[in-house]
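Interim report, section 4.2 (structural modelling).
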Amino acid sequence: MSGVVLVVVWFLIAYLLVLNGAYLVLSFVAMKTLRDKVTLRPLENLPPVHQALVQPVTVIVAARDDAGHVVDRVRTALALDYPQFEVVVVNDGSRDTTLEALREAFALEAFPEVYWRRIPVKAVRTIYHSRLHRNLRVVDKERGGTADAINAGVNTSRYPLVLALDPRWMLRRDGLRVLVEPFVDDPATLAACSTVRIGADGSGGVEAGAADLPSSLFTRLQIVERLREPLLGWARRNAALAVSGCAILLRKDAVVEAMGFRGDVLVEEMELVMRLHRLWREKCERYAVAVVPDPVCWTRAAATLAQLRGERMRWHVGLAQALAANRGLSGLAHGGAVRWLAYPFLGFFERYGPAIEVLGFLLLAAMFVLGLLPGMVFVALVALAFALGFLVSMSGLLLEELSFRLYPRWGQALRLAIAAVVENLGYRQLVAIWRVDALLRWWQTR
Amino acid sequence: MERTVLFPDFQTAFALTIASGAFVAGLLLLAAIALLGTVRGWRRRRMAAIESGWRNALSQAVEDPQGAALPRIGVRDLPHFLEAWNRMLESADAETAERLGTLLSLHGIDRRALRMLGRRSTRLKLAAITAAGHLREQRAWEQLEALAQNAGPITSFAAARALLRIDARRALDTLSHAIPAREDWPLARLASVFEALGPAVVTNPLITMLLRRPRPGLDRVVKLARFGQPEKISSIVRGWLGSSTDPDVLMAALACIEDRADLPWAIGAADHPEWRVRMAAARAIGKVGSREELPVLLQLLRDPVWWVRYHAAHGLIRLEGLQPHELEALREGARDSFAADMLGQALAERRWS
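Predicted structure of the assembly:
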């Protein structure tokens, strides 16, 4: 083997070891967090929270051309189990009958409410109050996009905590009670993010407890992929940056101070959470971004390859945008684990990792075809990538087993283990190719 | 003779060795998952059987602690037993609690629980601390006091709660500095404890804490003050009106205004640079003011901050002696459109409520 080939081979070995090693470390850190939490929860939650001192929450429902579902979405929001909350629906310039559907279902009437424009958004036309639900208001505004609509909801909110309800996921009925706990226990909390679970029908079919394991292998692959996510591990060092697609309860004054969600990024919530980290670290003020491990937030799995591709590409572009928008995190004087660990890890391994992996293996394949690389070396590297991926997937499954045991039956564990094997035989590689594609497209449009 | 070389080079051998190791480790994790599931299932069934014996004994003890037959509790099962016992005590009345406590003393479990206070495991320690509180265990006082002052947030808070159970007045005296200062003790949970203790117990300690005006932590004490006797607490808090410029202190004092005699302070606070104080002033004036205070509320209705204008508008509506048609006239005649709009909103909210 020539010197160049040797360098490529060793670089790939080192890359795979560091990447998967980091995932394993994060997984074990998360295990410790979960174990402490699950073991101590019955005792640490005593005495109960006094209802009068729990911060009330504004649930924001942004809707655009959603006449078919918006009423159900609002009813789901109104059915949440929480002592004091309001629902603010923002009609983002719908061109269909969204507003009419809301008006009819909830007996809305225009109300002379003074709108407080703390975050700049597109013009608000009318604010409606419901005759049926005292805690429901509807803001009708000009079309401006999801971020703009949520910001309008934040402007209209009367309560100190806000949660933007997303049609992509379903919050358990008592989800707000669980999400608010970090705010109760630590007044410096700026955001509490749930981890996301994939359910058979997008809801997990649960109030709380065990869940149904979807029958499709394609869905189970996505479940295993989610279990590998290292968010909880990062949270132990207050360094959870790549938060997306989940329920995030936010302190409103922090959102306003940060000037709200940005409309020019694909994953708004991830960018905002990174920005909160940056702003609070720049101010050198104590803060916390908590991750709630309880299975309170469920999402539907992608049903087709095209849908999955769209989701993964969106996430990857969103990550790249958020990292670029918050470059300042890498030079903070008091950056802590965010500056020294999380940001570099995301910036290198998450953003460029798929490109390194895809290019590396393409290069190896080419060298093998050209006879520059012995077949055995090629096989060894593929085996290494597979085995390390399998190990990380299994650590994710163990994490699940140690914590909430959503899939307690033998058969379920076995089917997930099979998915963990299959995931490394094509699925992950396919996702990596899509992510490279996303990165290239993002570079072109910058 | 030529040697057979299994791997032609070091990097192949290295990669394959690591891959084999990782694969075996993955399989071991899979086995661990299966084993964990089995062990958990076995443990759950065993605990269910044992707990049914305990439950019977605990139920008997509610009637007759001397006659209750409690099965022997091994070292490993003691934390589980104490947790079950603690759970039962959380919702028990005083008489039941006493009988269940007697059951523990008769079987020597109280002494075993005391010994657990010194254990390193947080779980064991928490179970023992909570049990000591329920047992009103005076012998644990010093240990609990040390834990309340020094240990981490969960353990120290549990110890503080146990002290409050053992002797509330003494504990409030001991913890009077920690309650305002320890921000890691969740206020909303502390509030539940204060509510359970009742105004007769918490009022005097709250007064002591309020008079000390702890910085930081005064806001915590002020929030807890709602669980004291209002007449005693508010007279102290109102006294701050003339002696402080601190926004938190002033806001708390303004919230306690019940009498026209204090109105001059509220009117003075209407010009405060901090908007939260102006908002509190608007609420206070609306609560006890009359038509004479109309100019101040109209001034607050033109405030640049939304919440100040909102409370000023609601203050105007509450103002004694002001008729609905006068309010409409005020709205129509307002030269400031922000003020007119806010008054319009407040009037509409009143119509809707």
